[in-house]
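Final report, Chapter 2: Outcomes

The project's central promise was a pipeline that accepts a single protein chain and returns its three-dimensional structure in a standardized token representation, suitable for archiving and comparison. That pipeline is now operational. To close this chapter, we reproduce one record exactly as it appears in the project archive, with the input sequence first and the structure output second.
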Amino acid sequence: MENLKPCPFCGGKAVIKKAIKADVMKKYPQYIEKLKSYPESWITMGCNTPGCILFYDTHNGTIKLGFYPDSEEAAAEAWNKRAPV
């Protein structure tokens, strides 16, 4: 996988995680109906800096950004494809 650019908001390290639909449904029962149409798993991304708008808490699995059903490579490419600031 290619190197990931830092978070565009805080400069923190990017985090790529695989989400499993059954696990997300258990953790967030209020979203069960919406999640029924999701694939069995997907790739999601975020930042590892607490307090950042894109923070992805690796301890509790809070998803803040991203839904890439294809692959980690597709997620990394999408993350890195942004306009320079």
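Archive annotation: Confidence is low (pLDDT under 50) at residues 58-65.
This record, like all others produced under the grant, will remain available to the consortium after the project formally closes.
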